[in-house]
Amino acid sequence: MADPSTYRPAPGTIPTDPGVYKFRDDSGRVIYVGKAKNLRARLSNYFQDVSQLHPRTRRMVFTAASVEWTVVASEVEALQLEYTWIKRFDPRFNVMYRDDKTYPMLAVSVGEQVPRAFFYRGPRRKGVRYFGPFAHAWAVRETLDLLTRVFPMRTCAKGVYNRHQTLGRPCLLGYIGKCDAPCVGRVSPQQHRETVDSLVSFMNGNTAPVVSQLKAQMAQAAENLEFERAARLRDDLGAIDKIMEQQSVVLPAGTDADLIAVAADELEAAVQVFHVRDGRIRGQRGWVVERVGEFADAPSTEPSPDDPALAGLLENFLVQFYADAAQRQSQEDAEDVSLAQRRGVDQESFAPARQERVIPREILVPVLPTESAVVAELLGSLRGSQVELRVPQRGDKRALMDTVYRNAKDQLRQHKLKRVGDLTARSAALQDIQDALGMETAPLRIECTDISHIQGTDVVASLVVFEDGLPRKADYRRYRIKEAAGDGHSDDVGSIAEVTRRRFKRHVEDKLANPDESVEEASFVEERVVEESAQAARRFAYPPQLFIVDGGAPQVAAAQAVFDELGIVDVTLVGLAKRLEEIWVPGDDEPVILPRNSQALFLLQQIRDEAHRFAISYHRSQRSKRMRASALDAVPGLGDKRRTELVKHFGSLKKLKQATVEDIAQVDGFGPKLAQAVVDHLQKSGS
User: Fold this and answer.
1) How many angstroms from the chain centroid is the CA of residue 116?
2) Average pLDDT value for residue range 375-393
3) Rounded Cα distance, 66 and 121, in Å
4) Neighbours of 287 (CB within 10 A)
5) Cβ neighbours of residue 190 under 8 Å, at least 6 residues apart?
6) Pair 597, 546 in one domain
7) Which intervals hold domain UvrC family homology region profile (predicted)?
């Protein structure tokens, strides 16, 4: 590992022009590629105090052994060169939006002499035209089944095709009219190719000619009294309509746009794209990538229009995604030209999707990229006409953007759950935690606490439990924190100490108590929560191997003081700081840094996020109760018990305000006089 100071360029030698730079390791391999409007200003950031760098950026500059740059004439050229180098060198520290290998697609092998249509997952191959991706595998198969009613092309594998060619009789699909049976010469390869070209044209969005042709044929068949043929053509039109209905109409006809949304947490970002063509959703794609470098501060909540990290991430995505799409389309067009020349037919009969189909004239994003004008100019040059980048503010496009964002959030959540839910991943995570913290055994039981409040009011805490890497919700606890010194305020450090004391004081008392006797309940308020199923109450004496507090060194020190006070020596204590996902160990001046793609860090983050969610939900319920009850504080003759009964009976303050004197008088403990006082008070306070 090289010290960045050993290869730092001499002061004043880096130009101030726009350009692209490469970091290389000691073997000469390119490990990172970046661009800059001002090379000197950008590269200087990498050679500042390394403690101020993001962990992954810090690892990159220590892995590198040299840096070099190339000056270009404009920012557009810098974008183009950056993309070219990323594709060429595949640097390990760059964010890469590779083709998604999980979404199912409809594929047509146009490169074969007798092409076939089939369901496909995986990397793209030469000589195959792809349509999709589809959200579900069944959607591909249903679409293919409907298409073969109208375009009866081959769908069988090569072995099946050769077998029936040898037998001299078609398969079942040939008998029922869903394949024109080129295997037995029912149609010639050229006639079959015309069917394939029609299907490709239809899937590229040229639906009007197919519909018009079917309607004309149906009318002609009816006029010739060929009613069976007319009925079959009518059913074919119904199949066409069903395929088109599957592509939801979301925007006005003629609208060609891509909508892109990003959801992120501290470690990863999910990018979701909806492709809208002619007002219909024609495709949906998604990626989950690790957040690195300058993109590491992207928000985990609803994106903000001025967020620089998200803007930079979107710029990176737009260039990679659309440059890849344009390059792939150029290759497919070249294959079409070559195939058309070999067959001696006009290339236009293939009706390929041109660049304006893969790069729409309008791209909607949650925030504008860092250099939106430069990115728009580059995309316009790839498309061959102007491309508009903008943020939708209202109307149908804004509503659809919200839907895309919800899909991105769900995609990120599912990705996290999949990793945590995998047995192998959980085992590896627990082993990595054991190794990183120097524990004697793997932490099969982990507890984590988090504090929630608003400016010191309604302070509550959560305690969540994970066993074998999975949440054990029957053991969750939540606490109401006592106000410090009666001043109405409570700091996080003091709250962490209070929760730790209350949880482990209970543990110590349970250990000292006679196991045959019932344990006396503590004087403080502690609520036991069962979220999954009702289970018999049991003692909370089983200690964790690992206890996590949400926070850094101060919170860990406060919890450790409680451990020392109570004599807890058999539990490992750490703190998990949100900012850089650092793990703080009591007494250590430097945190433990886990690799950002490690299973251990994903599990710890999952536990911390669950504690945060549980604390937030309890805080909201407590604040809601307080706000409902405070509106009745000044009612004469209304004590705490009757106030609670009143709120419980009506369920909300809004319903209580709508109640009459007679309604309130039906509550236990209320007479006409007290009910009238409540109504008068609510009317007075509401006026």
Assistant:
1) 35
2) 90
3) 40
4) 20
5) none
6) yes
7) 259-563
Residue 289 gets which letter from DSSP? E
366 and 426 belong to one structural domain: no
Q: What is the 3-state secondary structure (H, E, C) of 205-273?
A: CCHHHHHHHHHHHHHHHHHCCCHHHHHHHHHHHHHHHHHHHHCCECCCCCCCEEEEEEEECCCEEEEEE
- Asked whether 426 and 420 are in contact (CB, 8 A), the reply is yes
Task: Point out the domain boundary residue: 563, 585, 616.
Answer: 616
Give the pair of three-digit tokens for residue 183: 């295997």
> Greatest CA span in the chain, whole angstroms?
98
Token pair recorded at residue 421: 């839910």
CA distances for 289 relative to 184, 413, 415, angstroms? 49, 13, 11
Reported as a single tens digit per residue, the pLDDT across 304-356 is 545 567 788 888 889 888 888 888 777 767 766 676 666 565 555 444 444 45
Structure tokens at 91: 């640097």
Q: Kindly report which listed range (382-396, 410-424, 469-483) carries the lowest average pLDDT score.
A: 410-424
Give the relative orientation of helices 599-630 and 640-650 as an angle to the nearest 10 degrees.
Answer: 110
Dist CA 343 CA 355 (whole Å)? 24
Question: Which of 616, 639, 664 represents a domain boundary (last residue)?
Answer: 616
> Quick one: tokens of 314?
């979107």
Domain of 520: which CATH number?
3.30.420.340
Residue 364 lies in a domain: yes
Residue type, 238: G
End-to-end Cα distance, the chain: 72
pTM over 0.85: no
**Which of 174, 169, 252, 253 has the alpha carbon at shortest distance from 207?**
253
Pair of tokens at residue 182: 């080129």
Q: Rg for the chain (alpha carbons), in Å?
A: 33
At 66, the amino acid letter reads S
pLDDT in tens, 633-682: 667 777 777 777 777 777 666 777 788 888 888 888 888 888 888 888 77
How far apart CA 176 and CA 199 sit, in angstroms, is 19
Above 90 in pLDDT, residue 20?
Answer: yes
Note down the domain range covering 409. Answer: 257-416
Beta carbons within 8 Å of 135's beta carbon, 6+ residues apart: 103, 284
Split at pLDDT 50, 70, 90, the class of 291 is low
Whose tokens are 């995505």? That residue is 317
Say if residue 658 is in the same domain as residue 578.
Answer: no
Number of domains in the chain: 4
Q: Which residue has the tokens 């010739």?
A: 224
For 455, other C-beta atoms within 10 Å of its C-beta total 8
Q: State the average pLDDT for the chain.
A: 78
Handedness of CA 435, 439, 444, 445 (dihedral sign): negative
* Secondary structure (3-state) at 113: coil
How far apart are the C-alpha atoms of 413 and 166, rounded to whole Å? Answer: 52
Q: Which amino acid is at 258?
A: D
